[in-house]
Design a protein that fits this description.
Subunit structure: Tetramer of two alpha and two beta chains.
Strand content: 5-15%
CATH superfamily: Aldolase class I
Family: Belongs to the TrpA family.
Pathway: Amino-acid biosynthesis; L-tryptophan biosynthesis; L-tryptophan from chorismate: step 5/5
Shape: globular
Low-confidence stretches: 183-189
Catalytic activity: (1S,2R)-1-C-(indol-3-yl)glycerol 3-phosphate + L-serine = D-glyceraldehyde 3-phosphate + L-tryptophan + H2O
CATH class: Alpha Beta
InterPro entries: Aldolase_TIM, RibuloseP-bd_barrel, Trp_synthase_suA
Helix content: 40-55%
Strand order of the largest sheet: 1-2-3-4-5-6-7-8
Radius of gyration: 17 Å
CATH topology: TIM Barrel
Number of helices: 12
Largest sheet: 8 strands, parallel, barrel
Oligomer: single chain
Number of domains: 1
Mean pLDDT: 90
């Protein structure tokens, strides 16, 4: 694991004038073995960064799709130890792909902040975003992140004041995670004009790369986000929905994998 993997991917994408596509999944959904195969499909289809949205009983920032996936994982009794082992398995198979984890604060507090970051680093993870961590409470987390060479990622929302964006920029290292809409994660039909304005505004405030998420589900969303100045996008709910729908229709795994690979490829191409 290297803290420079994010930087390498960002630099490569800029040189190629290609937007970054970060693909998300829920570790352990629909089960540990299948989840690894999904990660494999996603990466081999061209995703630049893999987002791993770890399960929690009260994921306040997540919409219905991810909440249902979290509950599915928790009902199976999948432990954090097993999830860390999954991270390690993905890292071993794909040493050059940045792994980015989203984890709620309670799950970091439980083993102890430093211990959590130590386990994360040993599992080969490169970056961590804690949705319910405020900047004012971030000092011990940033200290642990620095010690274990984990990139701490922060969220910037449309409601974030300019002066706070400046402070978040100062605390961040590799990129900012833009919440493109006010609300929770989930698929949306339209890319709103105010979203483009929001991206342009943040671009003027910070030199850090911007990755836009929450509601990015179609190739046209990718094109609009990149045109507005985002360096990349992230899509997770649409991937989970695609997996769930095709599992429910009893399609063979190979067919589902092909549909997923085509979706990743289309989203990646849209950022060119």
């Amino acid at each position: 694991m290297s803290i420079n993997l994010f930087t390498q991917v960002l630099q490569k994408s800029r040189e190629a004038r290609q937007g970054i596509f970060m693909a998300g999944l829920v570790p352990g959904f629909p089960d540990l073995e299948t989840c690894f195969e999904i990660a494999k499909t996603i990466i081999e289809a061209g995703a630049d960064i893999l987002e791993l949205s770890a399960s929690f009983s009260d994921p306040v920032a997540d919409g219905p799709t991810l909440q249902q996936a979290h509950q599915h994982v928790l009902k199976q009794g999948i432990t954090k130890k097993q999830v860390f082992q999954l991270y390690k398995k993905i890292r071993s198979a794909f040493p050059d792909i940045p792994l980015f984890v989203i984890e709620y604060a309670n799950c970091v507090y439980r083993p102890g902040i430093n211990e959590y970051y130590r386990q994360l680093a040993e599992s080969g993870v490169d970056g961590l975003l804690i949705p319910d961590l405020s900047l004012e409470e971030s000092a011990p987390f940033l200290s642990a992140a620095n010690e274990h060479k984990i990139s701490q990622i922060f969220i910037v929302a449309p409601t974030t004041p300019n002066e706070r964006i400046i402070k978040i920029n100062q605390a961040s290292s590799v990129f900012l995670y833009l919440v493109t809409v006010t609300g929770v994660t989930g698929q949306r039909e339209q890319f709103l004009q105010e979203t483009a304005g929001f991206i342009k505004k943040v671009k003027q405030i910070t030199p850090l790369p911007l990755i836009a998420g929450f509601g990015i589900s179609k190739p046209e969303h990718v094109k609009q986000a990149i045109s507005a100045g985002a360096d990349g996008v992230v899509s997770c709910s649409s991937i989970i929905n695609l997996i769930r729908q095709n599992m429910a229709s009893s399609l063979p795994r190979e067919a589902t994998a092909k549909l997923l690979a085509n979706y990743i490829n289309d989203m990646k191409k849209a950022g060119a």
